[in-house]
Structure formats: C-alpha cells, structure tokens
Amino acid sequence: MSAEQLEAGEHTPNRALITICLMIATLMQALDTTIANVALPYMQGALSASYDQITWVLTSYVVMAAIMTAPVGWLSARFGRKNLFVTCLVGFTITSMLCGLAGSLTQIVVYRLLQGAFGAALVPLSQSTMMDIYPAAQRGTAMSIWGMGVMVGPILGPTLGGYLTANFDWRYVFFVNLPFGIAAIAGLVLLMPRVKPRGTGRFDWTGFAVLSLGLAALQIALDRGEELDWLGSGTIIACFVLAGLGFYLFTVHMLTARNTFIPRAVFNDRNFIAALITMASVGMVLLASSALLPPYLENLGNFPVATAGLLMAPRGVGTMATMLIAGRLVSRVDARLLMLSGYIMLGFSIFMQTGWTPSNSAAYIALTIFIQGAGLGFVFVPLQVVAFYTLPAELRTQGTSLLSLVRNVGSAIGISVTTSLLDHAGQYEHANLAQFITPFNRALQTGGAVSHLLAPATPGGAALLNSMVNTQAQIIAYMDDYKFLLFTTIPAMACLLLMRRPEINRPPALDHGAFD
Q1: pLDDT, tens digit (0-9, with 9 covering 90-100), for 339-353
Q2: Residue 142 CA: distances (Å) to CA of 20, 124, 193, 323
Q3: For position 276, what pLDDT does the model report?
Q4: Is domain 3-194+261-427+471-495 annotated with CATH 3.40.50.2300?
Q5: DSSP secondary structure string, 57-78?
Q6: Helix (H, G, I), strand (E, B), or coil: what is residue 331?
Q7: pTM of the entire structure?
Q8: What are the domain boundaries of the chain?
C-alpha cells in the first residue's frame, strides 16, 4: 500500500458515521434472507397460496441475489462504488415497501426478485468500502464490526420476524426496512467518499449469461427437488443438466476469453481460493442450522414461538462476542489458529446437537447454540483477513462479490440437502420403528391401562401410536442432519493447511486503487 493510500485510510472523514451506514445496509440485506421464514404461513393465508407456492417468496430472493452478486465488481468499476451503492440501497428500500404492500402471490414474487437484485451488491460493496476506509492495522477490527451484520442478520432474522408477525402483521417484516434504509441512504449520500468511475470496457454478457443460467438452474433444482422427488422428476433432471452446462460454459469462457467480468487473477491467489471453500462451508452451517432450529424447538421441543425465538438469540450473542474478540486478536495471533479454534467450537456444538432430545433443558439448548455462534464468529473474522491478505487491492470488490456468491450457494445447498435428508430419514426411521408395533409387543398386549390407550385396533390408539413413532423418527432424522453438518466442517479445516500465514503485527502489502 502506498503512503497516499495508508494516509487516506487513516484520515477518512466521518469514518464512524460511514461505518454505521454501511452496517445498516449490511444488516438489512442479511436480515431479509431469513426474516420472512416464520411469516410464511401468514403470507400463505393472506395471499391464497399453497405451501410450495409461498416458498417462492424465499427462493426468488435468494436466486436473484446469487445471480446479481457476480457482476458487482464490474458495475462498481464502471459506474463508481458510491453511485452503485446508493442506487442499490434506494432500490432495495423501495422494493421492500412494495413487498409489504403486495396483494397477490405474483406481485410479492416479482418484488422479491427485484429486492434480491438490488440487495446483492450491498454486502460486497460495504465490505470493500470498510476495508478501504480503515488502515491495514485496524482492518481486523473493521471486519469484526462488518461481520456482525452478515453473520448476526440471518441468525436474528427469524426472531425479529416472529416478533413483528405476532405483534403487528407479516407485512411489517418488509416495512421495517424503511426507516433504516432512509437513514443509511442519507448518510452515504452525504459522507461516503466519491471517486470517478474508471473505464472497464464492454460488459462480458456471455460470461454473465452462462453463469446466471448455472446459478438459477441449480437454485431451482435445490429448492424444488424435494417436492418433485429429485431425479424422479424430469424437471429436476433438466435443471441439473442446465446447471452443469452453465457452469461448464462459464469455466471454458473464463479460461479462453480475453476480458471476463470476473478477472482470472483472483483465482491465482492461494489464500483466496482456500477462503472460498471455507466460506461455502460457513454458509452451509450458518443457514442450514438456522433453518433446522425453529421447527425442532417448536415441533419437537414444544416451546412456544416466542420462547423458541429467545432460545435462538444466544447464537447471535456468541457470534457478536467472539467477533469483537477475534477482531482484536487477529493482528496478534495467527489467523489460522483462530479459525481452527472456531471450527473446533463449531464442531463440538454440532456434536452436542446430535444428542439432542425433547427432554433437553432450555439452558442446555441455549448453551449449545451459544457455543455454535461463538465458533462461527472465530471463523468469520480471521477468514476475511486471510482471504484478502495477498489479494491485490484492485481485485478487492470482485473478491468480496465472489465470497458473497459462494456463501449464498453454500447456504442454498446446505438448506436443500438438510431438508431432503430430514424428510427421507424421517420416513425411513418411521418405517423402521413401525415394525415393532405388533401383537407380540408386550406393552401393547391387553390387560393394562397403557395397552388400552395404545391399542392399534382403535382409531385413537392407532393415531397416538403413529404420533409417538413419528416423534421418535423425527428426533433420529434431526440427529442425522446434524451429523451431516458436522462432516461439512472437515474440508474447511483442511483448507487451513493451504492458507499462507499472515505476518503478525505487520499490515499486508496491497496494490493501488484503495478507494475504487
């Protein structure tokens, strides 16, 4: 980094206020990935939609956000980071209001598509801006502050969404963005440094088109696969074929084209490649575990909705606490050791979840969730530092876009795989346990109160038996899901061996282009 760049980072005017505005934008986008989850049943009734139709409220947002994350780097260079940031934040706020005002399923799906398109740029642009307005010595602390929005947003989304839905209306999960969006827009317009956009040539429409095809087809296959019986459906097979074709053509295009909207140079950095794999693992655990927790707590743990939301809060508390600690330690301790400790905590918490039963106390569940959040915090902050340690500054925005992209794809894969495993394991275990419901089971033989209550020959007894068997099958199915998540941490831990160790107490050498 040149003297001018370091000076710019150290003396950026109103840095604290800019940071607050960036955090608001990051938190808004991250919250909207999960805040609507608990409101889906209310939307379903209000919009007269079936269950599979109303899930498009979630998937439409994720699909478009994944697609539009890829070209953020080119758009930032072409139109200027501030111009793009403010435009996307305005669009995100307006489409949030339109989602809340939607009167039909078609309207809300279209508005969610637009919301995802505008929101895709908020996270990578806020991250690259944070890295530029802070000097290298303070970058670990800056990433811990920024990371709170990315990590805590999806964690707190269901809690906030449940509160707004229960006490107001499902539309307020979208209306809540309005005051914060206006505040962030005003702050960035007035305070964010403006730099003239630099020419980047024509946009790589071919690369963007084939990548979009691959991402959209993959997302649709993952979202609809369980409902349509995966490879038993011609639609899902076609989606997988299109996804493979899109990714293949994109790879060939990346290797042969002269100018691509994702520079090939970003894939020459070993630290960054390892960080991409690790980020995919973080995305899988972050949202997949968040999706598994509410139904487990409410349906198997028999906790009220409000209590279930409170039990998920320790995860966010643990994440915020360790992010602050990691932000201070990352300049003094090997970042790889911090990530290793985080993965150990993460793995231990998931191992604890493999033994969960409905008889577990709320305190034990809260402790497990807290440890999991703490582990995620220790992984996320050092990962941001290591990923960009040797990456040239002019590739920083493209790098942040790719990290956001793989996190979204990892999250989609994690949710789809765990949902499918939960369904299939539940059916398998139900059939496996049902084989013990026979006349030779002494507990079901006549002569006692229990046998009369559980008599399979009576409608009430058969229903009660089926409910008991289904509960036990679901418990085992959740255990299998958590075992799967435990195994996903292994490749990410192996990637730590590939990462180059950042020099402690020495800022990384970065190239020119600090502010755009």
Answers
A1: 999 999 999 999 999
A2: 11, 14, 17, 10
A3: 92
A4: no
A5: HHHHHHHHHHHHHTTHHHHHHH
A6: coil
A7: 0.77
A8: 3-194+261-427+471-495, 204-260
